[in-house]
Model the fold of this input.
Amino acid sequence: MSDDAVSPTPFEIELRETLERLGDLSLKLNDRIEEQTKAISHATTMTNEARRAAETTKQQTDPDQYAEYAVEVIDKRLEKRMQDIKQTASDLLRASNYTREVLSKADQDRTEVQRQLWEQERKLDQFKGRMRWFGLGVVILVLVLTVLFPRFLASYGPTCGVLGGVWTTTSTNTNVCAFYRE
Done:
């Protein structure tokens, strides 16, 4: 600096020192504000993490949600078995229906066989009743033929010899089969 330069007045010096102090104070205040902002940000982060942890803990200890989770786990584990049980029930129902149909058919067949047996017994009884009359008719026919058949056979020449008779003509000019005794 040159000699010509004006020396600062005590007011200027004091003003400069005050400005420097204010600048330093401003920097310190800024550093403190930054530290406090970092601390507040850290506290906010910790608070948010604690809030999330509390929410998670609340969800994990919530009986309704835990019950839903337990139901989901049980459902997943039992789903295959339930499908197997449903399939078995379906198979049993199908087998039961088939058995019912078979038994119904067997009952119809049994009824039909009983009806046929009853019909055959009725016809047999009718035949037995007719058999008596048929037997009586045969006996009568045999008796009639016993009397009439030889007489019929004896009225023709060729059959007269078969019966052991002789074909001859009588005095009235009638042909007869004669049986002679010896």
User: Anything to note?
Assistant: The chain has a mean pLDDT of 84. The beta strands are 166-169, 175-178. The CA atoms of residues 119 and 135 lie 24 Å apart.
